[in-house]
Design goal:
Elements (H helix, E strand, L loop, with lengths): L1 H11 L18 H15 L2 E5 L5 E5 L10 E6 L14 E3 L7 E4 L4 E3 L15 E3 L8 H19 L8 E6 L13 H4 L3 E7 L4 E3 L4 E10 L15 H11 L15 E9 L3 E10 L2 H21 L1 H4 L4 E9 L3 H4 L4 H12 L5 E2 L7 H7 L6 E3 L11 E3 H20 L2 E3 L6 E3 L11
Parallel strand pairs: 3-8, 3-9, 9-16, 10-15
Antiparallel strand pairs: 1-2, 2-8, 4-7, 5-6, 7-17, 10-16, 11-13, 11-14, 12-13, 18-19
């Protein structure tokens, strides 16, 4: 496991925070530091056709070890980290043989990772955990995925007796700001289907995600001396606050779960003259997703009508932009690729947790771009903050799953012919674990 730890730490100690306000790809130049390292590492372990374009998209090939024609599969991960919390100067802590109690992340700041609050910790008693030092995020999202893909490819290269078809790997920038798939060349990648290694706890297997949109709402105001403001001042900050209060009170991230959608206010800044509110809109149901966007527009119309006489023009300007859609629509016709991953987990003694993603993934957009792409666990917990951690054993299991999927793809009975994915099984995938 030390090899996995060393590789993971070499990745997370490189700052790759993306920037939603940048118009370049990658959005931050520092992401290319890790991209260059990955490019060199893929070559060093023996991958072929290793490429890195000017935007930081990396692709590589592991050639087939069999003569038969089988599907080409892919594994994808992103190397940027979230701008929600700093990823600079990450100082990972290694907790060996975790005792199941509180973990002191930072004694000076009294920051504690406790199973009393983060109940998932209990299941990793006795394992090796990698945590933050309480001042940064860790970056397991998705540097755990990078570690797992590179390590799995290295293992297959060192063990050519393992049967597998052609495998493609892809590493992308800017996933955390919704742009990871923007310049991904699906045709060049050339896989029949792929898996993103970008989930959370061990066993997660996901092929449903939110439909997503982002809203930017600008409120206009009028500033006059507060002593003479009667009937004249319009405080845009107060109007923004009233707008927020018009949203359904219980339909927020901290009050919802499963398939339940939400509105999430994540940024608010302004002055009397102008305030900008940014929020995200999420729902698994396409019908409910459409309705949520209509709610925003309806509130906008209500406020503009209210202030029409006083202001003389629209006081609220709303822009809504769709970000990605539920991949289920594209994966369901080829659901055998999910069954294959489920079978791989079962054969490794991992209990599959098949559930909808309460978020997004590059796999969603890639699925709509013609590359069906379910999501598999990478092992981390509490992403995007100082309480993030990853069990090393979970990363090892993810590596095993990649290898097992490669084996099953090479030994399952597929027919190759034109379909949505270019391939389909001749018979239903047997998801029961095989017995040695």
């Amino acid at each position: 496991m030390q090899h996995i730890i060393n590789r993971f730490i070499s990745y997370v100690t490189i700052d790759t925070e993306s920037d939603p306000h940048s118009e370049t790809t990658p959005s931050t130049e520092k992401q290319l530091v890790l991209a260059n390292l990955l490019y060199k590492e893929l070559k060093a372990i023996g991958m072929t056709e290793v490429t890195k374009d000017s935007h930081g998209y990396i692709m590589a090939t592991l050639p087939s070890t069999i003569e038969e024609k089988v599907p080409t599969i892919g594994f994808i991960s992103h190397y940027d980290t979230s701008p929600d919390f700093t990823g600079a100067n990450v100082k990972p802590q290694i907790i060996e043989n975790y005792d199941g109690g509180d973990i002191i992340l930072n004694a000076e700041k009294n920051i504690v990772l406790s199973p009393n609050y983060f109940k998932d910790l209990v299941q990793y008693k006795g394992q090796t955990l990698i945590t933050t030092d309480g001042t940064t995020l860790l970056g397991a999202d998705d540097k755990a995925g990078l570690t797992e893909i590179v390590s799995a490819m290295e293992y297959l290269i060192k063990n050519p007796q393992i049967k597998h078809g052609k495998i493609r790997v892809g590493f992308t920038p800017d996933e955390e700001i919704g742009r990871g798939a923007d310049l991904f060349d699906v045709k060049k990648f050339g896989a029949d289907w792929a898996y993103t290694m970008d989930g959370s706890q061990i066993g997660e297997l996901e092929y449903e995600n939110f439909n997503a949109a982002g809203a930017k709402i600008t409120f206009k105001g009028k500033s006059v001396h507060p002593g003479y403001a009667k009937g004249k001042m319009i405080n845009s900050m107060l109007i923004a606050n009233d707008f927020i209060n018009e949203l359904p009170r219980k339909e927020i991230p901290q009050e919802t779960k499963g398939y339940e959608g939400f509105f999430h206010v994540h940024h608010l800044s302004g002055s009397i003259e102008e305030t900008v509110l940014e929020l995200i809109i999420r729902d698994h149901s396409a019908k409910k997703f459409k309705k949520r966007k209509e709610i925003i527009h309806d509130i906008t119309k209500k406020f503009n009508k209210k202030f029409a006489k006083q202001f003389g023009e629209d006081i609220v300007i709303t822009e809504i932009k769709d970000q990605y859609y539920n991949m289920k629509e594209k994966v369901k016709p080829v659901k055998f690729i999910v069954d294959l991953a489920e079978k791989a987990m079962k054969e490794l003694g991992i209990k599959p947790i098949i559930k909808p993603i309460r978020g997004g993934t590059d796999g969603s957009r890639l699925s709509y771009m013609g590359l069906p792409c379910p999501n598999i666990f990478a092992g981390g917990h509490n992403f995007h903050g100082k309480y993030e951690y990853v069990p090393v054993e979970s990363m090892q299991k993810a590596i095993d799953v990649i290898i097992k999927i490669a084996e099953l793809t090479a030994t399952s009975d597929f027919s190759i012919h034109p379909t949505d994915s270019g391939v389909k099984p001749k018979s239903k995938i047997n998801k029961k674990a095989s017995r040695d």
